[in-house]
Amino acid sequence: MASEAPALYPDLNARLQAVRAGIVDACERASREVDDITLIVVTKFHPASLVEALSTLGVRDVGENRHQEAQTKAEELARLDLNWHFIGQLQTKKARQAARYSSAIHSIDRERLVDALADPESERQIDAFVQINLTDDPGRGGVAPAGIESLAEKVLETPSLRLRGVMSVAPLEEPAAAAFERLAGYSERVRALAPEASAISAGMTHDYAEAIAAGATHLRIGSAITGNRPEHR
Ligand SMILES: *Cc1c(COP(=O)(O)O)cnc(C)c1O
Questions:
Q1: What is the three-class DSSP state of 112?
Q2: What parts of the chain have a pLDDT lower than 70?
């Protein structure tokens, strides 16, 4: 039986194709290969039916930022071939549960979270990104730059995690390009410890071209593809 999901979202394919074209464009300008970029479509606050529609359009990587919501959707859509990327603040007590459905966690921001994610019995490795705070405000998500090495080492010592690289959200109060340049420098520091941990998760709807120019490998793009998010409840 054909899925009815695309019919529910008549503009979705056009928006997805527009973003894909934008990625190709930004890669050309940066002299980078499109194949080195993973597009994660951020589906937070949207219903499972939208994720299903995306899957029908060939999307394999989706991003969510709240555990309860992500878990519910991942269970409902378990029959689909999707990689669930957890990109939001993760409570220590929810870590093990999030690890069950997530193929990647982009928001590793403290050593206690790594301890909570460690699962000696797991035969599967979860891709781990160390989230870095690009502002001086400790209230924002991410580890302060001074703590990058010790957090990365902690992930490297944890067999159920595979350190992939760094993640960040560009601060609103400065040009994204400048922030992503700093992130590229932090990525080098992580690669000095683990050369294979070369991924950079950065770039959202309004700054993905700048992120690509600065070396991003994993884009997390929501509203440009999904349309505006439903009211946050
Ligand atoms: C919501 C969110 C995104 C996507 O944001 P858009 O501006 O809608 O593209 C990316 N990363 C994180 C961490 C988010 O919470």
A1: helix
A2: 1-3, 232-233
Q: What is the Cα–Cα distance from 81 to 60, expressed in whole angstroms?
A: 7
As a whole number of angstroms, the distance between CA 137 and CA 164 comes to 25
Q: The pTM is what?
A: 0.96
Q: Encoding tokens for residue 89?
A: 């603040």
Tens of pLDDT, residue by residue over 163-175, are: 999 999 999 999 9
Distance (Å, rounded) from C-alpha 85 to C-alpha 79? 17
The reply to whether ligand 1 has any atom less than 6 angstroms from the CB of 176 is: no
Find out whether the beta carbon of 204 lies less than 6 Å from any atom of ligand 1.
yes
Distance, CA 120 to ligand 1 centroid (Å)? 31
Please state at what angle helix 48-56 crosses helix 12-29, rounded to 10 degrees. 60
Name beta bridge partners: 61: 83
